[in-house]
Backbone:
């Protein structure tokens, strides 16, 4: 999630080359040749809010490259209640695990607002990876990053109070997809509801609303349409219980 300084990793990266692609996403990390080749594949599909791109238990019949919008990855708990597992913004790849291992889908992936994605068949995707070894490595790194993120969240949200859990979720999202601005703030251009943030942190929506209001009042962050700005990254790091940068 961060380097030795405690500063979010991708926040130190220069802005990505694609309009609307999250910094640090797969499309952002591919070189121009590999990215253009990937974007020429498949069929462009448009999804309305709450449309499902894939359903848990389904066959891995496609991968999806997110061109615009945000999807949420959800699973069912033991009592049948939905649990938010991850958020994937534009620039990311979803559905690759079932295609690569031939097993069924492990989670639902649902549009959170309008989404545009490339739907690519398994054979076409595998052929692309064979033809583009550098892209193959970036897809592997993307998978590792997702698995590390899931493991880290499971560990870090165990035994922490609600404030620290929410702070760590915000820090993780900023580390993966934030863009450092000239004034030192970090911009996160992902449409996130307070309910979604609370679900990721494992706190009630009312608690998430209260804690986010406190962070705004303390000028740690500000929120707007499809964007969140961390105004005081050092303070957010401190709230996570992490050492300050420097």
Residues:
């Amino acid at each position: 999630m961060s380097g030795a300084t405690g500063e979010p990793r991708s926040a130190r990266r220069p802005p990505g080359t694609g309009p609307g692609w999250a910094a640090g996403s797969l499309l952002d990390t591919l070189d121009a040749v590999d990215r253009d080749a990937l974007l020429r594949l498949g069929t462009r599909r448009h999804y309305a809010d709450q449309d499902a791109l894939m359903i848990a238990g389904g066959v891995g019949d496609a991968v999806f490259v997110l061109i615009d919008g945000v999807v949420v990855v959800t699973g069912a708990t033991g009592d049948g209640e939905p649990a938010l597992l991850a958020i994937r913004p534009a620039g990311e790849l979803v559905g690759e695990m079932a295609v690569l291992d031939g097993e069924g889908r492990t989670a639902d992936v649902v549009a959170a607002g309008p989404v545009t994605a490339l739907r690519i068949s398994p054979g076409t995707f595998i052929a692309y990876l064979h033809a583009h070894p550098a892209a193959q490595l970036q897809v592997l790194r993307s998978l590792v990053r997702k698995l590390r993120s899931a493991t880290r969240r499971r560990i870090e949200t165990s035994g922490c109070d609600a404030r620290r859990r929410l702070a760590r979720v915000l820090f993780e999202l900023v580390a993966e997809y934030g863009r450092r601005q000239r004034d030192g703030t970090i911009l996160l251009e992902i449409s996130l509801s307070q309910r979604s943030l609370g679900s990721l942190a494992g706190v009630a929506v009312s608690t998430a609303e209260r804690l986010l209001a406190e962070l705004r009042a303390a000028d740690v962050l500000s929120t707007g349409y499809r964007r969140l700005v961390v105004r005081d990254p050092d303070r957010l790091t401190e709230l996570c219980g992490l050492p300050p940068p420097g």
